[in-house]
Design brief:
This protein is mostly helical and about 80 residues long. It has one domain. The protein is built from three helices and two strands. It has helices at about 1-5, 10-50, 60-70; strands at about 50, 55-60. It has a two-stranded antiparallel sheet with strand order 1-2.
């Protein structure tokens, strides 16, 4: 710590700014990892709900019906699929 104090002020400032940037980036990365896990969970849930095994494709009819129903009935306050 004493060595840091002996450095010129502009170098101290650069080191401090770099430290602050790295700490903020690590917090952002941690948040992005949480969002990625949540997103992957949601995709797996949608696939299990809207995937049509018989046709090997997404059941778009069910997906859009669910979207229309959720948009038209916000007063129920149920958790949303989308």
């Amino acid at each position: 710590m004493e060595i840091f104090k002996e450095l010129p002020f502009d170098l101290q400032e650069n080191i401090y700014n770099l430290y602050e940037t790295e700490s903020k980036l690590s917090a952002i990365q941690e948040y992005q990892n949480k969002l990625h896990k949540l997103l992957m969970y949601e995709i797996e849930r949608y696939q299990s709900t809207f995937w049509n095994e018989q046709h090997l494709m997404w059941s778009s009819d069910l997906l859009f019906f669910t979207l229309r129903w959720e948009i038209s009935t916000p007063e129920y306050g149920f958790p949303s699929f989308i």
